[in-house]
Amino acid sequence: MGAASLQPNATPQRLRLRRPDDWHVHLRDGALLQAVAPATARSFARAIVMPNLSPPITTVAAAEAYGARIRAALPDGSRFTPLLTAYLTDTIDPAEIERGHAEGVFTACKLYPAHATTNAAAGVTDLARIEPVLAAMERIGMPLLIHGEVTDAEIDIFDREAVFIERHLAPLLGRHPGLKVVLEHITTAESVAFVRQAGPNLAATITPHHLHINRNAMFQGGLRPDFYCLPVAKRERHRLALRQAATSGEPWFFLGTDSAPHPRSAKESACGCAGIYNAPFALESYAEVFEQEGALDHFEAFASLHGPAFYGLPLNDGHITLVREPHTVPARLHGGDTTLVPFHAGQVLHWRLAEEG
Ligand code: DOR
Ligand code: ZN
């Protein structure tokens, strides 16, 4: 036996990656924005920021003002760039979307089926109503980001993503073969398979929480609101399919945290909000999965290369370093008067982002 085989597959102690991006995040507004923006800016060079504020971001002016509020919430010297999105409604004006894209204000549009999730009441009731916008987006090369769940009360909540693909996504891609679409936060083996066969204009983001938990997490020892999000976590076989997809090195799967903070009081309530706040340790959480899957060599592509390639944006310059150093995630985080429970609260993670400089 040669010396080289004494430590087969030894885990590296440091990982150096091109600066990554988060292709799906909720930064909120007001005090919550102040509390959470630094966590995303610490780890990511850019992030696609969701427009589901109250009221939602539907105009270029509203997006510009929101962008300024985000920048004001960043720590001094931060190099983070928010990439803003427009919230599609039944009555959205295609000219406003085109102008926002041409002026570099809107990177993409977000489609929430009406009532699908938090602040989705003003979402789209029927895809036929936004046909002119979709045609314009296809023409100008502007990506459509989809919350892919049907909202019909008679469809079981665990089936809503698969039914959306069948009823809405497949026909939509047929009508608009040139439209770039991101199926956001996929949660099922069916979605993984659909993305794989769809061709280069369809991609998917995968969250850290859907890689770590299955639906049992919501019910372990009692009702656990910190593991409730939408789309809801599914069976173990789906989690395993997502882990395989994320770590496969295939270019249509990339990083999108769907970090969705809600104050602890809004989560721990008779009608608790959907959303998992994973931004503070998102990269560390993904790194854990890639290590467990023996795929650390694919981590940079998932975190830093596939997203920009799909969006047609330049790669970031500069690098970050993750060091293998176990640490316990705090049980609670406090920002101003707000208490937030981070994903992995109280658990040990094995990678830590080294501070710059
Ligand atoms: O869990 C979720 N939270 N899913 C969403 O789609 C929206 C998000 C939020 O904004 O809270
Ligand atoms: Zn989201």
UniProtKB/TrEMBL annotation:
It is an enzyme of class 3 (hydrolase). Homodimer. Binds 2 Zn(2+) ions per subunit. This is Dihydroorotase. Keywords: Hydrolase, Metal-binding, Pyrimidine biosynthesis, Zinc. It comes from the Bacteria. CDD domains: DHOase. One of its GO terms (molecular function) is dihydroorotase activity. Gene3D superfamilies: Metal-dependent hydrolases. PANTHER family: DIHYDROOROTASE. SUPFAM superfamilies: Metallo-dependent hydrolases (SSF51556). Substrate binds at residues 26-28, 52, 147, 230, 262, 274.
